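Problem: given the chain below (446 residues), write out its structure.
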Amino acid sequence: MYIIKKIVKVGLWILLTLTVLFFIFFAPVNDKPLEKQSFYHKNLENAESLTLDVYPTQQNLKVAWRNINITPKDFIPMAGYRPRDAFESVHDSLFAKVILVDNGKARFALVSLDLLLFPPALKEKLDAYKAELNLTDYYFSATHTHNGFGCWNNSFAGEIIAGTYSEALVERLAIDIVQSLRVINQELQPTQLSYTEVDADELVVNRLQDQAPVDGKIRAVQFIRSDSSKALLLTFSGHPTSISKRSLALSGDYPGVVAREMVNDGFEFTMFMAGMVGSHRVRDNGLSDFDLAEKTGQTLAEKIHKANWMKQPDTLQIRYGKMKLQFGEPQLRIASQIKLRSWLFNTALEPLEGDIQLLALGDINFISTPCDFSGELFKKSIQSTIDQPIIITSFNGHYVGYITDDQHYFSIKKEEVRGMNWVGPYHGEMFATIINTLLKKKELLP
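Solution.
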């Protein structure tokens, strides 16, 4: 009897301890409507009150660009899918790409990396050089390859997922990008800008729900300088996850293939920015790994080759605005209605932070977001807002997880919605409302 009582007592203490620990580490999801949360109203007020900067000009748009090979010499950890301690080979080199755009009144640096996302630590370092480089601002993104290198995230969880943070690596990236911007500042030339949209719906599927809408548009800007040199900037919504998570080879995935293939069309430079990848994956058509990356990249290049380009005026007015976002408590879920406590999330990943940018080169509207943004959400809630090109890109130097159509939040159990939405329900509507407000505001400008 004594032994039984002791076992019961120990069992109760264990149960009590586990219960206490559970409530220390976990909490119910906050599913209160956004209309009843103060940060939501603050965001809408900030969007309504934001004044877009207008930079008119009388001179031709001038542009310059550069590739920077960032392939590591050492065998360091990889970032994407799961922890991989070190890459073992280089299938294709990784690059940082920079474009400098100057209309005589404003100067913007567009930067994209062949990495999983744009590292916040690198953004912080580059921001410190903005005045020295005489930049109005940056516009950041990444290709989102899942076979790039890591060691660029200095949070606790970031080091587990992507390898021990390397200050030297991030500093080297910053120095190389800044030095390249200094060099191409002397290479600016008058440039003819053109825009195209090409349908490639057959290359993507909705990764959340088979019959849900997809956005398979290739959106691309062509730059032709006065010396006849050509550059291309494009976005696409297919998630660059062609290559197996078991692979230990560095690769830019299909965006790297597109860049290689466009050389055949006379483009000496191609920048890929991840588009609305939050709800889309590449259709495999029975292919996998590097075969799938090759086929997808080649098909995209073929479609761009056949595109009809819409020339823009030689003199382009630039409009610009950046809005810092307000967030409630983080809501990283471990089950449908259970999330990590805020203190644990903030300790592991740092507090939620992000902004949305609108950069309009004439009538071409670039929107940068701090997340995996959803093409499905774009099709349902944004694409008809204004009758002008809208290019939404992901991974702008902050990261708050996946922003998808709100209808999926409680009905879809996939990791993209269950574990990778860090902000909670109804934020798809909030992001769409903010973006639409900025686009309408821009449309009303003279």
